[in-house]
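Write out the 3D structure for:
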Amino acid sequence: MKCFYLMAVLLLGSGQAIAAPELNAVSSDAEQVQIQLRDYFFNAARFGDNEVLDEFIQAGYDLNTADDKGYTALILAAYNGHPGTVERLIAAGADACAQDARGNTALMGAIFKGELRIAKRLLATECDPDQRNHAGQTPAMYAALFQRDALLQALRERGADLEASDPMGNKVESLARGEIRTR
């Protein structure tokens, strides 16, 4: 992709010596290029643009880079329903267990959105099926709450603890019945 290569060249610079007064301007320019690259990366994941994503993978870009909400490319691809993008990222080494700022994972996002195929793929990774978010909720709790019975069964088969409870006392069984405890 031409714009990716152009930005990479801009980021790397010409290799010429830079006078001290110009360092701040160059540093600021480099920061802007980094921000633009990150935006291209996240948008490629968000919209399933695998051609652009492949450029980042080939360039050795950090696949676990997170945005200000803690979303990684894998979390964005899973949440937005792009199984091919999810597969590419996992195959290239993206951390399937990474959590966003609220502690939610790509698996939790896929469950929330009802992305069965993506959620089952994420269940095949090395992640703990009982990984909790910052509210103490597990993927099984999400599956129960959003009536994702097939995913709840897949979590059971993966060894998820269906008796676990969150700090409010919510359990898979009660969430499946629509009983939700709040403060």
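Residues 4-18 have pLDDT under 50 and may be disordered.
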